[in-house]
Design brief:
Strand 5 and strand 6 form a beta hairpin. Strands 7-8-9-3-10-11-13-12 form an 8-stranded mixed sheet, sandwiched between helices. Strands 1, 2, 4, 5 and 6 form a 5-stranded antiparallel sheet that branches. About 50% of the residues lie in helices and about 10% in strands. It is built from 24 helices and 13 strands. It has a domain of about 270 residues: MetI-like (MetI-like fold, Orthogonal Bundle). With about 625 residues, the protein is of the alpha/beta class.
């Protein structure tokens, strides 16, 4: 949902993430390991190096918690002291691997075609080579010792890191906003720093921290084999080697270094998860301070200020990198129980407007609004809607997990949001499948999505939205790719769902006939703006905006002449960022004048329940004449 300016900073997102259970655990573990690494050699360095020939190879005791080694040195103290060197070498090798992987991963996306192909092919060959053999080969090349082991382990991490980054940047580099940045002449370094790396941060951080765990194990393995840290230095791998022969005599001494390796590896994984959440879209969001008045009173006050509207949005915008606005400051109200249609050509911003209300705008899109309220709650402070909002997407196949049974997917909604038991949720899922007219719901609930027809999948998605008690149903092109009979069934189900639950409906479509069957009011969008708001009863003969009139004229009727071509709208809709100072529809409008090309009109009142954004709206009489000509 919309982020405040301070919420967009990494510092605030990291702070919020650290207050979650996983954040507290990771922070505690990191601080504990850091303290051991910093203070261990200072406090226990002398004890770890002290040789006592009278206490050689002793077992655990009060004086020596883990016993002693073959020179009488305290093993527990040596494990603690070895923490600093082990971590330092692990982090150095990780820095080499991550740095080299990022470099080789992003270069193909910004370099020339030949160089990019050469680097990609080289990385592919290195990834295909067995990792363990590649590590041992590098260890042999760099020689025995700490320095050689650091470079060997670090460089062995470069190929898999580079392959991951290459795959991620390839998908990002094909995005429209990257293409726009190239056209604008953005330099390669800025392209990498501003557009590529931020959008691959989360998986890259996760991979790097998981690789750090692997590097810790690999480095300890080299030391265990005698190829890493050499005497008199020691790390956990070398300590493990020293005590392996006594594992049956003093197992705690041999297992202690291994336990340290495992626990520190888990710490790296937890730290990576926290950093990934803070750097990506999964960071938890803080709520605004609770109001002093009771929540019920607060809602009633907010609802009164909203004029009784269930949804109120003012100056709602969806912005993508490069300053491109796909939704350019729309304002809308949806009353409780009202059915509103949102229509327009593809690319007009209909779906993004609905996704902004549901906090589902895909990354890296950002949502902002002057006012954004749902049922009296400020969605800018807390965007979570729970089961109060149901979303029916255009493609039900993408909405349903193909690996799970349909009933299980529906039941999960009740378990997570309503606190129902597994049995109660399963019974509710069967009941909802029956409510949307799916025959034999008990049997169908045990089936997977591929066993459903297209219409049944769409009905199942509607049933998923009705698992709770929604106050608003957003249906985004719910009848696309369905035949006429199934379309009628789906629209009937939406009408029944409204009647049963009293929910409001926001129906998104480019099909005016579909919207006219279900909705009471229509919002017409063009180029990210609402250009007309009118009752559905006035759509055919009373539309005032030339764009709305053109949409109506392009719809065939029963009286249309079969030998005559349908009316079309010349030109194409503007892309985000292409709109100039004037009316965005002016280049395609036959009524456009000089004022239209110079100044953009705003949405103004045209009568009761009517608004239009046009300098020269079509008069009702002219609209009727225009419609007659378009449909004759």
């Amino acid at each position: 949902m919309p982020h405040h300016d301070h919420d967009s900073s990494l510092r605030h997102r990291l702070g919020r993430t650290l207050r979650t259970p996983i954040g507290v655990t990771a922070l505690t573990a990191c601080l504990l390991v850091a303290l051991v690494a910093v203070l261990g050699p200072v406090l226990l360095g002398d004890r770890a190096a002290q040789i006592d020939t009278d206490a050689i190879n002793q077992g655990s005791s009060a004086a020596h918690l883990l016993g002693t080694d073959q020179l009488g040195r305290d093993i527990a103290a040596r494990v603690v002291v070895a923490t600093r060197l082990t971590l330092r070498l692990t982090l150095l090798a990780t820095a080499i691997g991550v740095g080299g992987g990022l470099l080789l991963g992003v270069v193909p996306a910004v370099a020339g075609r030949r160089l990019g192909r050469l680097i990609t092919a080289t990385v592919g060959v290195l990834v295909a080579f067995p990792g363990l053999l590649f590590l041992l080969f590098l260890a042999t090349v760099f020689g025995v010792g700490t320095t050689g082991a650091v470079f060997a382990v670090g460089l062995a991490m470069v190929p898999p890191m580079a392959r991951l980054v290459q795959n991620l940047t390839a998908s990002v580099a094909g995005s429209d906003y990257v293409a726009a940045a190239r056209i604008l002449g953005v330099g390669r370094f800025r392209m990498v720093v501003r557009h590529l790396l931020p959008n691959i941060a989360e998986p890259s951080v996760l991979f790097a921290t998981q690789a750090a765990s692997g590097i810790l194990v690999a480095f300890s393995g080299l030391s265990f084999l005698g190829l890493g840290v050499q005497s008199p230095q020691y790390d956990w791998g070398r300590l493990l080697n020293e005590q392996l022969n006594r594992i049956f005599v003093n197992p705690t001494a041999a297992l202690a270094p291994g336990a340290a390796i495992i626990l520190t590896g888990l710490m790296f994984g937890l730290a990576g998860e926290v950093l990934a959440q803070a750097g990506g879209r999964r960071a938890p969001r803080t709520k605004e301070p609770a109001p002093r008045q009771p929540p019920t009173a607060a809602r009633e006050t907010a609802a009164d200020s909203d004029g009784g509207a269930l949804v109120r949005a003012r100056d709602l915008r969806v912005t993508f990198p490069g300053g491109r606005q796909a939704v350019r400051g729309i304002s809308l109200d949806i009353g409780a129980g009202e059915a509103v249609g949102l229509v327009g050509e593809s690319g007009s911003g209909k779906s993004l407007s609905a996704l902004a209300l549901a906090d589902l705008v895909p990354h890296p899109g950002r949502v902002s609004a002057g006012t954004l309220r749902f049922n009296g709650d400020d969605l800018r402070a807390d965007p979570r809607l729970g089961t109060e909002l149901a979303m029916v997407f255009q493609d039900p196949t993408a909405s349903l997990n193909p690996a799970l049974r349909v009933g299980r997917q529906l039941a999960e909604v009740a378990e997570v949001h309503l606190g129902a038991s597994r049995a109660q949720a399963a019974a509710r899922a069967v009941d909802r499948l029956g409510a949307v007219r799916i025959a034999a719901p008990e049997r169908r609930a045990r089936q997977r999505p591929h066993e459903y027809s297209g219409g049944m999948r769409q009905r199942a998605v509607i049933a998923m939205g009705l698992m709770g008690k929604p106050k608003l149903i957003i249906a985004d092109e719910p009848t696309t790719a369905l035949d006429t009979a199934v379309q009628r069934q789906v629209l009937g189900l939406l009408a029944e769902a409204r009647e049963e639950s009293g929910a409001a409906l926001l129906l998104i479509s480019h099909d005016l006939a579909v919207v006219a069957q279900v909705c009471e009011r229509i919002l017409v969008m063009y180029a990210g703006l609402i250009v007309e708001n009118l009752p559905v009863t006035e759509l055919l003969d009373g539309a005032a905006h030339p764009y709305t009139r053109a949409l109506v004229g392009a719809v065939p009727t029963m009286t249309s002449d079969p030998g005559k071509e349908l009316a079309t709208i010349p030109g194409r809709p503007p892309e985000p960022g292409e709109t100039g100072a004037g009316c965005p529809f002016a280049p395609r409008c036959a009524r456009a004048r000089e004022r239209c090309r110079a100044d953009a009109p705003v949405l103004t009142e045209l009568g009761p329940g009517r608004q239009v954004a046009c300098w020269y709206p079509v008069e009702p009489a002219a609209a009727t004449s225009h419609t007659a000509k378009a449909t004759s």
